[in-house]
Amino acid sequence: MRPIYMAYGDRPREMTLGLLTASDTASFVPQGASIGIKPNLVVADSPERGATTHTEIVAGLIEYLMEHGFRDISIMESSWVGEGTGRAFSLLGYHEMAKRFGVKLYDLKKDKTRTLSTPAGDMKVCTRPLDTDFLISLPVLKGHCQTVMTCALKNSKGCIPDSEKRRFHSLGLHRPIAALATVLKPRLILVDSICGDLNFEEGGTPVQTKRMMLGADPVQIDSFGCRLMGIDPKEVSYIGLAAQWKAGELFTEDDPVIPVNDPGGAPAYPKPSGLVSRLTKNVRQDKACSACFGNLVHALYRLDHRPTEPICIGQGFQGQRFEGIGIGRCCSGASCTVPGCPPSALDILKALRKR
Ligand code: SF4
What is the DSSP letter of 71? Predict the structure, then answer.
């Protein structure tokens, strides 16, 4: 029996404490362990916009751990390519929080790496999360424009260097994400599903889903997250691959889901609207980085007409010459290129408006 604990509401600190207390988390963290907390700060943006972990969840978790005698606590993260983790730390109050609790704060973009052998080949992983005794992942349950959804497994992508993030995209994301789970294993997962964006990884259209979950297996948590979102886990290849490579086990009907408070008027879990698929119908994508693709999707969202020319994006277009609009440095062979790596949503929007 592998329970998932579920809290309902929109009060992150109280929900966090409720989940940790009900699951008696302190009893399975080894005394004296070094604890690493990995939130999702993919971009420097408010959690209310649906992309990042609520800061109060991190604070509630630290409060709980300290009350139970744990002192060696670090927060660690690396935002996506093109975003400075320090900007996210500043905007979301991490410096003040680290000072208040006396915990360490690490930008993993500056961390050393170690090369590990995985089922998808050698992979560089940041040393801090690898060397921490008890890694706690705090993902946001969200939609993702390339992998359909993102939660615990993909949150670990913030523990690799930017060069490796780009390489993950060149490998099609799914295999490397699953392979990373075989070498970097969070011991606890606390999911922020209070107002995740069910379409965009980088937020902007949050949906009030008013839930948090706690579990210990990222494969189980992600397959359960799919179920909540009305997605067949088979649509998200990295989940099945991670299970196949024994990084965890899929959620089954036998796994109990234990509510820790009264669901009250919690809404039924809304389904993703399919907005991204509609917006990107005419986009040819080949190994595009998340930041690049996400910026394009945002630009298309704001555009009041659909360009008639083909739009190409991704590392797969490097060195090719073609007619149409190319997004980013990789598509410099297009008849019209939006420069940058990644180009901003605003620059893409300005270019598309002229077509
Ligand atoms: S241009 Fe875009 S797809 Fe190419 S490497 Fe840069 S961010 Fe990635």
Answer: -
| CATH code (residue 193) | 3.40.50.11440
Choose one of 233, 259, 285: the last residue of a domain.
259
pLDDT at 66: 98
Is the CB of 328 inside a 6 Å radius of any atom of ligand 1? Answer: yes
Q: Indicate whether residue 294 lines ligand 1 (CB < 6 A).
A: no
Looking at the fold, whether 252 and 300 belong to one and the same domain comes out as no
Give 163-212 pLDDT, tens digit per residue.
Answer: 999 999 999 999 999 999 999 999 999 999 999 999 888 888 899 999 99
Angle at 231 between CA 230 and CA 232, to 5 degrees: 125
CA 101 – ligand 1 centroid, Å: 38
Count of domains for the chain: 2
Same domain, 48 and 123: yes
Q: Does residue 51 belong to any structural domain of this protein? A: yes
Atom of ligand 1 nearest to the CA of 82: 7
Whether the per-residue pLDDT at 1 is higher than 90: the answer is no
Distance 327 CA to ligand 1 centre (A): 8
Over residues 58-80, mean pLDDT? 98
As a three-state string, the secondary structure of 88-107 is HHHHCCHHHHHHHHCCEEEE
For residue 309, give its domain range. Answer: 275-353
Alpha-carbon dihedral angle through residues 80, 84, 85, 88, given to the nearest 10 degrees? -100
